[in-house]
Design a protein that fits this description.
1 helix
Length: 71
């Protein structure tokens, strides 16, 4: 019979539970880092897209002004 005052491991009370918990928390930490990296990459891609769009817009405006001035 187990001692009710002792807290039970999240994955149960068996010898491998501590190893399982360690691997679970390590994997969770790795996933948090990975998702943070993905979030930063998506933000960077958004910034690049904005820069390219702004550049094309400015180029289009210059071309339109050139067409007007030569007409």
């Amino acid at each position: 019979m187990s001692d009710p005052t002792r807290s039970q491991a999240p994955f149960g009370d068996f010898p491998e539970a501590n190893t399982l918990l360690l691997r679970y928390t390590t994997t969770l930490d790795d996933m948090v880092k990975l998702l943070s990296t993905v979030k930063a990459a998506i933000a960077f891609a958004g910034q690049v897209t904005d820069v390219v769009a702004d550049s094309y817009e400015a180029s289009d405006k210059r071309a339109a002004l050139d067409v007007r001035s030569t007409s």
